[in-house]
Write a structure and sequence with these properties.
The chain is of the alpha+beta class. It has a single domain, classed as phage-related protein like fold, CATH 3.90.1690. It is built from 7 helices and 15 strands. The strands form 5 sheets. Strands 1, 4, 12, 13 and 14 form a 5-stranded mixed sheet that branches. A 4-stranded mixed sheet has the order 8-7-11-15. The protein starts with 9 loop residues before the first helix and ends in a 6-residue tail after the last strand.
């Protein structure tokens, strides 16, 4: 069997990586639109607006001069990932060994499994960065990189609760959510349509409304909660359960969205949240190439085959006033 397995060919490898889907559990990686930005530094507009109304005028008179739409431009370096996998000499020998078509298929499956894993590592990091952006900032602190990206969330859009949802009454929870939705309507000039929570946070809401003699939930709502873990239409919002995790360096698992944190917002109007894809930094990439770049090569001593995946990206929030992040609804 030749060493240059089809998956090792540059065009084939690039095509495979491009078509690999992110797991459905990676909510933001799947839903956020992507935009090519072939410049070395990411730049995006933070768009404000005005609640002012037009003034009356009379015919044949000069129009009132009004200020331009509120806007500022932000810049930041792209987040850069570059990782590779190495196939050891013994593995390469097995891949080269003559055999049947079945052996070739097994070899391709083995390589594809590693390519998928490499791609998943990148997708997991994109997902982590997207959820961090929704907190108002991304903080990167590794031995190689220390950086902060500030998304200009108003302080009022990172509120706290007055009463822990672990013991809050239904009315207190309603008051909290209503106040947060009002922030989005007042400052973002859109309707807050979606909330993202973990199942533990959703269970706090359910217990508050279903507990005791008050029992404020209908049987239909209870049945839906037991079936799906959420309460569709609760307070005129879509409540989405985030149940995806990543591994920390010590091997423990952490949620992309922590328990007792809530993200509320409008993700649709005005394209408020997207991922910029920057130019690759690899010298072998085509001129102006953006997006995930992959390549494969063979090292002669020791004999090994390496597969590399590189991605230059940055989540950007152009309308921060359309979101609210609550870090802990059950403090204490």
């Amino acid at each position: 069997m030749p060493d240059n397995l089809p998956l090792f060919e540059p065009m084939v490898l690039a095509g495979v990586v491009e078509k690999l889907p992110a797991p459905a559990a990676l909510t933001m990686t799947n839903r956020l639109p992507k935009r090519s930005h072939p410049f070395p530094v990411a730049a995006w507009d933070v768009i404000g607006g005005s609640r002012q109304v037009a003034k009356p005028n009379v015919p044949n008179s000069e129009a009132h001069i009004v200020p331009t739409h509120g806007m500022s431009q932000e810049t930041a370096s792209f987040i850069y990932t570059r990782e590779k996998k190495t196939f050891q000499p013994t593995t390469l020998h097995w891949l080269r060994k003559p055999g049947t078509v079945a052996n070739l298929e097994k070899a391709e499956e083995a390589v594809l499994r590693e390519v998928r894993d490499l791609n998943l590592r990148v997708d997991n990091y994109v997902e982590w960065c997207a959820w961090q952006a929704l907190t108002g900032q991304i903080v990167i602190d590794t031995p190689q990189v220390q950086a902060v990206v500030d998304y200009k969330f108003p302080a009022s859009h990172k509120p706290t609760v007055s009463t822990s949802w672990a013991s809050a009454t239904p009315q207190q929870i309603v008051d909290d959510v209503t106040a947060w939705k009002r922030l989005i309507s007042r400052d973002g000039r859109v309707i807050g349509k979606e909330a993202y929570v973990t199942d533990l946070t959703m269970s706090r809401v359910f217990r508050a409304f279903a507990a005791g003699a008050a029992n404020l939930l209908s049987d239909r709502s209870k049945d839906e909660y037991y079936r799906s873990g959420t309460l569709p239409g609760f307070l005129q919002m879509d409540w989405n359960i985030v149940d995806s995790y990543y591994d920390l360096d010590d091997g423990t698992a952490a949620g992309f969205l922590p328990d007792d944190a809530i993200v509320l917002g409008n993700f649709d109007e005005g394209r408020p949240f997207e991922i910029l894809e920057g130019p690759t930094a690899d010298d072998e990439a085509p001129e102006g190439y953006t997006g995930k770049f992959s390549k494969s090569w063979k090292s002669p001593d020791p004999s090994s085959r390496q597969i590399l995946l590189e991605y230059h990206f940055l989540p950007v929030i152009t309308r921060p006033e359309q979101f609210v992040y609550v870090g802990d609804v059950a403090p204490g």
